[in-house]
Every structure is written in C-alpha cells, then in structure tokens.
Amino acid sequence: MWSLSVVLNPLLFLLLFGYCPSVTIRPKEGWQVYSSAQDADGRCICTVVAPEQNLCSRDAKGRQLRQLLEKVQNMSQSIEVLNLRTQRDFQYIMRMESQIKGLRSKFRQIESDRKTLVNKNFQELKGKMESLQPLIPVLEQYKTDAKLISQFKEEIRNLSGVLMGIQEEMGAYDYEELQQRVLNLENRLRNCMSKLTCGKLMKITGPLTVKTSGTRFGAWMTDPQASPKNNRVWYMDSYTNNKIVKEYKSIADFVAGVESRTYNLPFKWAGTNHVVYNGSLYYNKMQSNIIVRYSFETGRVVTQRALESAGFHNVYPYTWGGFSDIDLMADELGLWAVYATNQNAGNIVISQLNPDTLQILNTWNTEYSKRNAGESFMICGTLYITNSHLTGAKVYYAYSTKTSTYEYTDIPFHNQYFHLSMLDYNARDRTLYGWNNGHQVLFNVTLFHIIKTEDTS
C-alpha cells in the first residue's frame, strides 16, 4: 500500500453545454495536471482536472482522421466506378480495333482493283464507318475519365501524406489501440476520484459567467442530490417581496431563457440564501426566522419550522444586508443553517438540520461576527467565511464541525462584478454558484485529499 496526496480540481461538467451567451465554453479535453510538487514528507501533491466522460471520441485529431478516412473511402468508391467504366470502354475499343484493321485491308483491296469493286466496297465501307460512329463519344468520355482518375490519384497522394503526418504526431500506436489505452486510464482515474468524498479547500478559480439577468441580488441553483442526468436550474430574483421561482430543464435552457415551469410559493422569501436539496426548496420566510420546505413535485409546503433565537429581518445579516440573516446550504454531509443569535453575541451559529422535519440535529457556536461576514458556504462539514462581499474579498475564516475548531485562512477569489449577494457550494458539481451583481457565475474549487490505493504501476 502507498499513500498519495492529491489536490483534486474537478472540471465543471456543466460547461460542456457551452452556456455562456456570447462565448461557447468548452472544457479542455483529457485529464489535466495543473501543477505538482512535494510536501515536507515527500508526498506528491498534484492538481488534476477530470474531463467529461468519453471526450476521447471527440478528440480533434480523431475527428480529423475520421474525416480524412471518409474522404479517402468516398474517393476510392469513385475510382472503382470509373475503373469499371473504363474497363467497359476498353473492351469496346478492342472490338473497334479489329474493325479498323478490317477497314485497312478493304482500303488496300480497293487500291488494287478500283474499277470492278468500287461500288460494292464503297457500300461495305460506308456500313463499317457508320458502325464506328459510337466510338467517338466513347473516346471522349474515356479521356475525361482518365483525367478524373489522375486527379483522384493526386488527391489520395496528398491525403496519404497528411495521414502519415498525423500518425507520426500521435505516435506509433494504432488510433483504436490508443483510444482504448486512454479509456482504461480514465477508468482508473475515475475509480480514484470516486474515493474522494471530502477535502479541505485550497483554492478558488474563476468565475465563469453563465448569464447576465435579473436585479443586483438573487439566487440560482441546481440540486446536489439529483441524478447526473437531471440538470434542472432554479432561479429566484431579488431578496425580498417575491415568491416566483422559475425552473429550467438544463443550463442550456437557462441561458436561452426557456422556462419549463414556474412556481408561485405560498410565502415570500427573505434574502438570497436558499437551497434546493433532494427535490425540495428550503428558504427563509419573509420577516421571520421560519424555515420553509417546499416540494417541487407536489407544489406544496411540506413542513415549516422556526429557527429558535435566530435573528431575522436585517438584525444579523451579511455585510451587504438584504435580509441575509439566515443562510441555508447543503454539502456532502447534509443540510445546514447558518445564522446568529443574541445568546452568541451576534456571532455565527451553525446548525445541521434534518432535511425532512427541519429539526436541529446539532449546533456549533463560532466566534466570528455575522455582520462582518461577506458570505459563507459549507464544504465537507467545514464552514468557510469571506471577509467581504466587495472587490478584494477572500475566504478568511474556516470552522470545522468535525473537530469544533477554527482557523484563519487566506484564499482569494476574483469578485469580477464587484458585489456578491450569493455564494453557495454544490457538492455534486464541486462548484460554487454565485450571484455577482446581476451576473450568474460559477467558481471552481480545489480541494486537498489524501487517498490510499494499491500500487498498480
């Protein structure tokens, strides 16, 4: 057994759809190693990007090879047709050759006996000439076909040179064999990736702008508990006086503005810190500390419960205000509520909730002031808090519910549009969803993992 320390930076699978309105965003093809180094103990630390499955089939060189091969096959078929036609014409010409030889002997006979045989031979010669008339267009077609064959042969020679160049560039392996080797490697890496459940936040990159819409404040999200084929998007504009939730079947539909359904909630929401988890929307009821669970399947409120002692209605908001007192979020370990209470002197309180009943399962009191926090999000049971919602913001504080300890961090991120009113982690995508001054954006995260596996080298 050997120990491998890995910093996994999973590529955003949503980007495959190319959802930027003005630019088609496509992931780099293949597994990418961003950086590598050794820690103090000599363990390898590397940054790996996992591609969308089966991207090898869309490899650029593979496409070029297939296109060239198809072209060569089409040309080969055309040459085969021309070859059959020229063979047919050649047989016809051979028959004409014997007739021409017969004409020559007739001409010689006429030369020797002009007077007695002129009339008889003239009629016979006339008939022979008429039978040779069809030979003229055949010869013309034969010359045309011969020219086409010559052109095709030249093109095939050129294509053969290109194919040889690509083969040399790709290496000595047969393309199918090379593709199979890459797929086997992908499977091994994906098996390794499946062991990576939780990790420590190391870096935030991006953002990638998905869309520009709505007001300065709002929320958008996908369900981290949904199946890989379910990529529905929910959109909630503004932080108050609204209860309309828009649903889109995919990121592509979201970018195009093609709504699949609209939900009219029974209560207006407060803030922008809502979350969709396992088919239900969890949000803070306006002007209260009540959490509402709304089922998208039934279109009804399943349950609602007050978060005892939690401040609300801008008593303990984030630095930007907006009734952001109660922040609901989800990660690999479940559903969470982040808020502040008078009992904890306005500092942040973390509670893990039962997703079905909204009962509090456990609570942790931190020493970080809620009013000094720009935004926060949970990853693997650790709450990460930013020091601002404006330009220059960074992840400044992390509290682990596993160890009930905290640490100060220094993880910067690019606040591209200067004002963040939402920042939530999606465990399925391993991505941060953000609402950045009327822009819906995605941040990629780098997590640090230590995994143990068999040495199969």
UniProtKB/TrEMBL annotation:
Matches recorded under SUPFAM superfamilies: YVTN repeat-like/Quinoprotein amine dehydrogenase (SSF50969)
Subcellular location: Secreted; Synapse
Coiled coil: 65-113, 149-195
GO biological process: signal transduction
Occurrences of domain Olfactomedin-like (ranges): 197-449
Superkingdom of origin organism: Eukaryota
Chief location of this protein within or outside the cell: secreted
Pfam family, one: Noelin-1
Keywords: Coiled coil, Disulfide bond, Glycoprotein, Secreted, Signal, Synapse
GO CC terms: extracellular space; synapse
Signal peptide: 1-22
S-S pairs: 198-380
PANTHER family from the UniProt entry: NOELIN-3, OLFACTOMEDIN-RELATED
Protein name: Olfactomedin 3
Organism annotation: Seriola lalandi dorsalis
